[in-house]
Amino acid sequence: MTEPAMPFALDKDGVRLAVRLVPRASRNGIDGIVQGTDGRPVLQIRLLAPPVEGAANKALIAYLAEMLHLRKGSISIRSGETARFKILFIEGDGPAIIAKLEHWVACAGG
Question: Listed GO cellular component terms (predicted)?
Answer without folding.
Answer: cytoplasm
